[in-house]
Amino acid sequence: MTGFGLSRMEDRFRYDIILSGDNMISNGIDIVNHKRFQNFPHLESFLKKYFTEEERKYIEERDRKEEGIAGIYATKEAFLKALHQGISSYSLQEIEVLHHKEGDPYIVLHGNIKKDTNIKTISVSISHDGDYTISSVILFL
Prior knowledge:
With 141 residues, the chain is of the alpha+beta class. 29% of the residues lie in helices and 30% in strands. Strand 5 (121-129) and strand 6 form a beta hairpin.
């Protein structure tokens, strides 16, 4: 299975993947309430610890900052769920959520998570409604 996707994590996928042709597909999803980040104590240190500089710049440029924070955070969590990993498995800064000019999100991997995985394609969808943001990440391994 190492030729398809994961090196040290492949056992976690043994019963939880979908085979589609030559690809293995895994999905992760997460939902976040924006209110979680309103009046958040130590928000700046939280952002510096878990968000990259580019992610923080994107959030600063938004009118609805809590919505931006929730979208990026939910996407990082959804990505880890698709890998069947916990939030403490890797630094969240190794999972960078960026946006094309048109606003479409995408993920760039860095550090150990990039070395430990062999992901062919990452599909990301983020949706906001009311006080909630939901993110879905599909990995093609």
